Amino acid sequence: MAQKEKAKKLNAKQKAYEKKQEENGKKVVMWIIGAFIVLAVFYLIFVASNF
């Protein structure tokens, strides 16, 4: 009986860890996309200023 409770606790911890990792992953992806957008804007300004 104790093993089942232990397994449930471990499973709950694993699910919480997965959720936390997924949220962190989404944040990283959003930062990368934001950085690409900023770089694209700088590139457009650079190209436009050379004409």
Tell me the fraction of residues in β-strands, as a range.
Answer: under 5%
pLDDT < 50 runs, ≥5 residues: none
Number of strands: 0
So what's the oligomer here?
A: single chain
Largest sheet at a glance? none
Ends: how far apart? Answer: 76 Å
The helix/strand order is H
Radius of gyration: 22 Å
The number of helical segments is 1
Residue-averaged pLDDT: 90
Shape: rod-shaped
Residue share in helices? over 70%
Structural class: mainly alpha
Protein model, in words:
94% of the residues lie in helices and 0% in strands. By secondary structure, it is mainly α.
List keywords for this structure.
single chain, 51 residues, mainly alpha, 1 helix, 94% helix, 0% strand, rod-shaped
Overview in brief:
Helix content is 94%, strand content 0%.
Write the layout of secondary structure elements.
Blueprint: H1 2-49
